Structure prediction request, 226 residues.
Amino acid sequence: MVDLLGYGKSSKPQAPFMLTDQADAVAELLRHLAIPRYTLVGHSMGGQIAMHLAHRHPEQVQRLVLLAPAGIERFTAEQVGVFELMQPAAVMAADADIILQNLQSNFHQFPEEARFMARDREKIKADPQFPLYAQAVVYGVKGMVREPVWEWIPKLQQEVLIIYGEEDALIPNRFFNPGLTITELLAEAKERFPRAQTVALPAAGHFIMWEKAEEVNQRIRSFCLE
Prediction:
């Protein structure tokens, strides 16, 4: 697992950086670690970053595992404009209740043992670098709509495993695409990716790797050993 630019203990650049910058940073890290070929696993925004990395550095990526990935769902120009309105101040202003609500929305059934993530998120508000973290969150959201992947997905030649939770409340976006189902989204992905396996797991939300850890891990192992 890698702390992306702007997150965790990674550096927090003040200049705007998009998903392609994140992809290039991860590719450079793996080159530095002398890992020439690998299976890349990405969740949510990380899934879209993984697609960018596979597209920009195909010689490095052997397979892709995309867990509830952003990037397959599409948005109109008007919807993109709404995402563009997001500002770091909104991230910084979130209080403990909003932070917990946002975390809970990632689960079909919220497990109490996950509450620590909300507490940790609340604690980092006291960090001097918190404004830069908030800025990174905004860059990530805007990057997802500024750097879409849909048009060139057919160029990806890696084998791909895509897993969504059937009860994902974040993807598809319930506000912009209320009629789009996980089944329909996966059907579109199956047609778009040249070499994709798609899976929808019941009774699971956006954090499928938590709610369905054993099944997700087994499917990844099977996929990598084929």
Q: What stands out?
A: Residues 19-225 form a domain with the Rossmann fold fold (CATH 3.40.50.1820). The mean pLDDT is 96. The two ends are 23 Å apart (CA to CA). The beta strands are 38-43, 61-67, 159-165, 196-201.
